[in-house]
Amino acid sequence: MDEAAAQTAWESLDLLFHISNILDTGLDQHTLSVLIALCDLGLNPEALAAVVKELQRDPSLFPSTLTPPASTP
Amino acid sequence: MEEEDQRKLTDLVVELVRRLLSQNPLNPQTPYSDPDLRSPHFQQSLSYAVRILSSRLTPSIAPDAAAIAESIKRRLATEGKSADALTFADLYAKFASKTGPGSVNNKWAVLYLLKIISEDRKSARNGLDSSVFLPNLALNGVEGENSSRVLRGRESREKGWSNGVLLVAKDPENLRDIAFKELVNVVKEENEVSEEVLVRDVLYACQGIDGKHVKFDSDVDGYVLSDSIKVPKATRIMVRKLCELGWLFRKVKGYISESMDQFPAEDVGTVGQAFCAALQDELSEYYKLLAVLEAQAMNPIPLVSENASSGNYLSLRRLSVWFAEPMVKMRLMAVLVDKCRVLRGGAMAGAIHLHAQHGDPLVHDFMRRLLRRVCSPLFEMVRSWVLEGELEDIFAEFFIVGQPVKAESLWREGYRLHAGMLPSFISQSLAQRILRTGKSINFLRVCCDDRGWADTATEAAAAAGTTTRRGGLGYGETDALESLVVEAAKRIDKHLLDVMYKRYRFKEHCLAIKRYLLLGQGDFVQYLMDVVGPELSEPANTISSFKLAGLLESAIRSSNAQYDDPDILDRLRVKMMPHGSGDRGWDVFSLEYDARVPLDTVFTESVMTRYLRIFNFLWKLRRVEHALIGAWKTMKPNCITSHSFNKLQHAVKLQLLSTLRRCQVLWDEMNHFVSNLQYYIMFEVLEVSWSDFSSEMEVAKDLDDLLAAHEKYLHSIVEKSLLGERSQNLYKSLFVLFDLILRFRSHADRLYEGIHELQARTVDSSLPSRDKNKSRKQTNDRSSEPGTWLSDGRKALTQRAGEFLRNMQQDLDAISKEYTSLLEGFLAQLPVQQHIDLKFLLFRLDFTEFYRQLHPTK
């Protein structure tokens, strides 16, 4: 990427990070950038949001046979 | 490129999952550190994420970045973070302006993403406040231990699930998720009905259909929200208010369907039907509005997310704004329906018209439209009545009712106004004119056999600017109607009067009646009296009317009446009134004039009876006059030869003279009275009334005027000739006077006969002649033996004469006294009369104030 593009990209990211903070989404910059890239590729934002929501939830919701509850990694 | 994109995609997804898991504070494995990429947990999460991503490939909203930004800003503002909203706006503006390489292409996607994530976070945080989880929240808040919290959480979730719907074994993650969502929905619906549902229900209610929660309750007589639904009180009230529209709609629709059902029973009438049709038109406008609203209710605006339900376009508030105008109209219609339930025809139109007197332009226009439709049958009826005389009124809605009557009472009673059906925008005078015009047409058609009125009708219509065809007029054009009626009335009246005067010669007949029935033709009456007089002295039941008719004919032929129109003479007849025994011919004789159709509208039975009464009175008066004239004939001085006086004694001579004088004086008085009375009747009463009547006939504009003028004419005659009800006393005393005069006549006759006899006696005393003696009537009962008479000689004659004269004198005195007292009584009553002005009569009778002076106290 050339200088101008990089600059634009950085500024956009910055703006979006601010917006995201205002909206209190709890995303950090890195995650946000990944998400932006995924959106840009054309993925459904609703689906992405769902992914975010699911993976941010309590992982003990997953069935006990597949995930050991509580303790070990 | 595709490959590269795909790889990039996968990498990114992996990266995302990694980061999310590492961030997740609840992750028991590696909080805040890099997760192991090989862990099954990680793999699981990854596969799950991929599954989610692949399952929803198309977004559910339109890619409009600006709209999304707007909604975000609004949300921030409603949450009270207005500073944040401003900042956001600023940032978004900057962000949106970034274009070109390196910038984000799908800006909307990113924004949408952020929005959803923030909403999810918020609802996740608030999700624990839901009432099912409430008992667990307290426990959650107390415990700090992760594991116990997790355990508790799991328990609570499981508990929740056992209340709920689905527990599936096979594909737990996804299906659990779905089940959880459904549970949330069910719970929400049980507790709290969404506004969307309420809006839909209200829309159903406004068409008279029961919705899921809003049903018609006949106890309360309204649409109510069932109590089991928990909605805030404000919403409940709002729903109730909106459902008023439904109640009104029900009422109006009920009326329409009722009327439509009753129509075959002929209870509704054309005006009622027009009303129903107009209401149905208005309702179809209303349906259009409801259809539009329903379509709107289905469509959400582009910013709705699945979790928020209040973003629906049509809220109850919006509905109440949309319903404002239909509510006014529907209320109006319901009020009208209530009013008109029992009314029909013109009364209904009048009631609706009263409601149209409203200042609000919306109401005014609405009522105007309605009234145009409702009144069109009425106006049609008026038009056909006024221009053709046709009364097409099956349902008895028109304000003119016709009755089948005989031709002669067609004008007076055939048609009348029915005030109940007269609408209030047609004034009384206009209604009278309408009635008269139609009546005239019918009269012309039925009684006069005249066809010329059709042309006048078309002329009238042309003059008024409408046509004689249907549908020329409508409500709101009352002036046009009025001008049409006025034109038609003018022409038809003129035509009718023309027909009456020219074809039926009304004036001539009136004059003829005056001349014959009111004894205007003097020579004819004189001759009739001469000829018929002796006949009428017989008792009534021996007189044959046939003979009298013959006498009438001869009377006509020998007077000037023979030159009169034969048609008029045809109608003149003799009539014998119903009589009892003991009546003389004088009491029952009368003349009659036969007025045929159409003149008998004017000369009805009652009118002719009144004419008859006047005739009787005049005839009696004439008879008295005739009697007095007859008496005068015998009183001529040269009937009594002077030489008879010489033969009598002086005393007798004096007596004779005084008696004669007395008689003469009395005759003079009576004659004065009778002739003055006669002249009064003739000139002051009959002629004056006739000239008034003539002038009124000239200016009469229609048959009603003519009838009124004739009525007045007759009435004035009746009153002034003392035949009215209030002049009963006068009338009676007058008749007593007449009787007295007739008695006098017979006395005078006797007197003069006696004198002639005396005369003849004195002449014959020198000529003894049996024949003469025998043929004379005697006043005393002595046997008429010529011998004894003659043999008595002068002395006896004188004695007889004296006696006779004394008797006569006494009789005459008696009559004279009675006469004077009666006359005074009569004259005294004259000035006291208040209802008629008899000063002219008094003037004539007491010109020299002779009678007044006799009794100055009176």
Automatic annotation (TrEMBL), chain A:
Keywords: Cytoplasm, Cytoskeleton. GO terms for biological process: gamma-tubulin complex localization; microtubule nucleation by interphase microtubule organizing center; mitotic spindle assembly. InterPro entries: MZT1. It holds the Pfam family MOZART1. It comes from the Eukaryota. It is found in: Cytoplasm, Cytoskeleton, Microtubule organizing center. The keyword Transferase does not apply. One of its GO terms (cellular component) is spindle. Belongs to the MOZART1 family. This is Mitotic-spindle organizing protein 1. It comes from Rubroshorea leprosula. The lineage of its organism: Eukaryota, Viridiplantae, Streptophyta, Embryophyta, Tracheophyta.
From TrEMBL, chain B:
InterPro entries: GCP, GCP_C, GCP_C_sf, GCP_N. Residues 766-792 are annotated as: Disordered. GO terms for cellular component: gamma-tubulin complex; microtubule; spindle pole. Residues 199-502 form the Gamma tubulin complex component protein N-terminal domain. It is found in: Cytoplasm, Cytoskeleton. Belongs to the TUBGCP family. This is Gamma-tubulin complex component. It comes from Rubroshorea leprosula.
